[in-house]
Amino acid sequence: MIPCRPTHHRRRGLTLPAHRLPRLPGRVAIPALPEQPRVPRPPAGLGDFNDAPADQAVRALLCCLRSLRWARRIADHRPYPTLDALLAASDEAAYDLAPTDLAEALTAETLPPLPDDTYEAAHTALTAANAAYEAKFGHAFVICLGEVAPREALDYVLEAIRSRLANDPEEERVVAAEELRRLAKERLASQLRGAGNCASNH
To answer: For residue 30, what pLDDT band results from cuts at 50, 70 and 90?
Structure first.
C-alpha cells in the first residue's frame, strides 16, 4: 500500500473517539436467475460464527456485551440463517437481562479518552460530566452513537450525560439497559462484517 502524502492544506477536524464503530455498508444482493427472487448474500463471518466452538463464540460475543448470560444464550441458539436473525436474537436476549446481568455488563464499560487533537476544554468538560454521572449511578456512562455524525459526537455525549443526570437510579437503569442493547447489536453486526473491534462505544 502506498502511504498517503501529508498535506499542509488540510485541517484536521474533531474525530470520533476510537471506540466508535464505522458506518456499515449496505447489504449486497446476489444477482438472481431469471424468474427467481433476489437472494441476499449471507453476511461475512456468520458462517464462521455458527460453526465456531461454543467457548469461542461466547468469547466473541463478550466483546460486544460483557454479560455471560447474554452471550451463552445467543451461542446456544446457533445456527442463525441470516445476520438479521442473529441480531433479533441479540435484542431478545438483551431485553431479558436481569438487574444483576445489567450490572455485570455496565461494570465492563468505560469512557475512553478523546483524541489527542481535541481541545483541552472538551477533555475537562467530559471528564467532569462523567465523574458526576459515575458518582450518582455507580457505573460508567454508556451511549450508542451509531446515528450521530462524528463532528457532533462530543456535544451529543455531553448533552446526554447532563440530561440523564436528572434521572433517578431506576429511570437511568432503564435508559442504560436500552443503550447497552443498541451497543451490543451494533458491535455484533460490525464484528461479523469484519469491520469492528471490542472497544467500548460511548
So the answer is: very low
> Domain locations in the chain?
108-186
Q: Residue 98 and residue 29: Cα distance in Å, rounded?
A: 38
Burial state string for 117-150 with b = 16 or more CB within 10 A and e = fewer than 16: eeeeeeeebbeebbeebeeebebbbbbbbbebee
Give yes or no for a contact between 144 and 179, defined as CB atoms under 8 angstroms apart. Answer: yes
What cell numbers appear for 64 in the block?
460486544
Architecture of domain 108-186: Orthogonal Bundle (1.10)
Q: Decide if 193 contacts 44 (C-beta within 8 A).
A: yes
Nearest to 199 by CA among 66, 98, 88: 66
Q: Which three cell numbers stand for residue 128?
A: 467532569
Alpha-carbon 181 to chain mean position: 9
Q: What is the pLDDT of residues 41-93, one digit of tens each?
A: 434 489 999 999 999 999 999 999 999 999 999 999 999 999 999 999 999 99
Indicate the SS3 state at residue 183.
helix
Identity at 139, one-letter amino acid code:
H
